[in-house]
Every structure is written in structure tokens, then in C-alpha cells.
Design brief:
Blueprint: E1 2-10, H1 27-39, E2 46-47, E3 56-66, H2 72-82, E4 87-94, E5 107-115, E6 129-130, H3 137-143, E7 149-152, E8 169-180, E9 183-190, H4 197-209, H5 215-224, E10 239-245
Parallel strand pairs: 3-10, 5-6
Antiparallel strand pairs: 1-3, 1-4, 2-3, 5-9, 5-10, 7-8, 8-9
């Protein structure tokens, strides 16, 4: 039995996230359909993360087991023929039998893309969050450091999911914010993230730009573990899974 490690990228605008859903189409469902057509097997895949509705990925991994002997270059070509145009297979390689795309991931980096201009860009619809008021990227870069380290991020998690979790403690390795022309990019890397955690951190950083929080306030919000003290949940369409390290 082969264990294949596959890297993909996708535009999540038309999907209810990566994970299989009862009430809508998902990235995983499209991959399952393509795998059945290509390999003639009913194959389940293991994804590296569960991205929400409308979230994108520039680098996403999954693995699956198969008896099919198709070479990796043939797999890549076949899948890209069968998949919708908003999902692309970037690479395929043989993995150790015990490899698991989710549990073996050591570090994940997300990027949040903000179009910081007075006017919207119709060509970036569903690909960036438009925020028309001036953002100070240098100050945001200072503020994001309040989230670095191992903390209980209960205040930065979708409340309904907390009872299902064994712990809300997560470690953020690094975070940074920077400007590229009309875009402000916020990148944050860690061992794992809670549901909506990155989007709530971004919303909280935007609140800080509005004068609602100082750096000390942000540290207290993290320590307070109260969702109502944090900022809004930024829209999903600005969020990208940027990189996964194994």
C-alpha cells in the first residue's frame, strides 16, 4: 500500500471550506471525486488543516493510501485535468507509511491580506479584505508581538467550538505585519490554530488601529481569556494558508 503526500493550492471562494460538509460543496469533496475517477478507488484523504468557508490556500497538503501504481507525474497531470480550475495539484511524492498530513505538521503559517485603499478593486473580490481607512503597518507589527509565545487563546476562538476542545493553549512562533503598496499583509506562524483564531487576531489588530487597544491592553486581552474582550472576526476571504512545514 502506497502513502502519497500531495501539495495543492486553491481559491476557496466557492467552497464551504476544506472539510467534507453535509450542506455544501468542499475542497475535500472535489478531491474525492477526482480520485475516484482517476484511480478507480473509494479513497479517503487526510488534510493538514480545516480551512473555513471562503478561506484560500497557497500551500495545503493531504495524504492518502492507495494500491494504484500510477506514477506521481501521471497523478499530477490526471488530477489537474479532473479538478475544477480553482483547485490545482502542485506536487506529489511517496511518503513513509506512517506519514499523516495533519499530525506530522510542525509549523503552519497563515497570511491575511488587506487591501488598504480608499477604493475597492473588483478584481480582488473575495481575495482580499478591503479596509478603506489608513493602517499603520509598523504599529501593527509591534502589536502582533503580543500574541507570540505559548498562551491560552480562548479569547481568540469561536465560542461554540471551545467545549469540543481538550485545550485552547497554542504556541505562536512568530508574527509580522508589513505593507506592500496598497496591501497590508499580516503573517502569523505557529504549531496549530484554534477555529477563527487568526481572523480574530486580525480583527483585534484593526481595533488597536482604531485606538481601542494599546500593546498592554492586547496582552491583557490574551491573559483574560474572554472572547467578548477581543476584536471582531475579520472576513474569511482575506485569509490564506501560506505554508506548512514538516
Amino acid at each position: 500500500m502506497r502513502n502519497l503526500k500531495v501539495k495543492i493550492a486553491y481559491n476557496g471562494s466557492a467552497y464551504h471550506g476544506f472539510q467534507l460538509q453535509d450542506n455544501g460543496n468542499s475542497i475535500q469533496a472535489e478531491i474525492h471525486k477526482a480520485l475516484r475517477r482517476l484511480l478507480y478507488e473509494n479513497i479517503g484523504i487526510f488534510g493538514c488543516s480545516r480551512t473555513d468557508t471562503g478561506v484560500h490556500a497557497k500551500e495545503f497538503y493531504f495524504n492518502f493510501h492507495t494500491k494504484n501504481k500510477i506514477p506521481c507525474d501521471g497523478f499530477l497531470q490526471g488530477m489537474n485535468t479532473l479538478l475544477p480550475s480553482d483547485i490545482v495539484v502542485l506536487s506529489c511524492e511517496e511518503a513513509d507509511e506512517g506519514f499523516h498530513a495533519r499530525f506530522d505538521a510542525k509549523e503552519k503559517t497563515y497570511e491575511y491580506l488587506i487591501l488598504n485603499s480608499k477604493l475597492k478593486d473588483p478584481f480582488l473580490n473575495n481575495l482580499a479584505f478591503h479596509y478603506p481607512y489608513k493602517l499603520d503597518a509598523s504599529e501593527m507589527n509591534e502589536h502582533i508581538q503580543a500574541f507570540v509565545g505559548e498562551h491560552d487563546f480562548r479569547a481568540f476562538c469561536k465560542a461554540e467550538t471551545i467545549p469540543k476542545l481538550s485545550t485552547t493553549v497554542r504556541e505562536v512562533f512568530w508574527g509580522k505585519a508589513f505593507r506592500e503598496n496598497d496591501f497590508v499583509k499580516i503573517q502569523i506562524s505557529g504549531s496549530g490554530f484554534l477555529h477563527n483564531m487568526v481572523r480574530i487576531i486580525v480583527g483585534t489588530l484593526i481595533y488597536a488601529q482604531q485606538g481601542k487597544y494599546s500593546f498592554k491592553d492586547l496582552e491583557q486581552v490574551v491573559a483574560g481569556k474572554n472572547r467578548s474582550n477581543a476584536g471582531i472576526t475579520a472576513p474569511a476571504h482575506g485569509l490564506y494558508l501560506l505554508k506548512v512545514i514538516y
